[in-house]
Amino acid sequence: MTSPRIAILGAGSMGGAILRGLVGSEVAAAGITVTNRTAEKARDLAELDGVTSIALESQPTGNADAAATADLVLIGVKPATVPDLLREIAPHLKHGTIVVSLAAGVTVATFESILGADVSVVRSMPNTPAFVGKAVTGIAAGTAASSEQMSLVRALFETCGEVLEVPETKIDALSTISGSGPAYVFLLIEELTKAAVAKGFTIDEARRMVEQTFIGATALLDASDDDPAELRRRVTSPNGTTERAVAVLQDANLDQVFARATDAALARARELAASS
Question: Would you say residue 202 lies in a domain?
Answer without folding.
Answer: yes
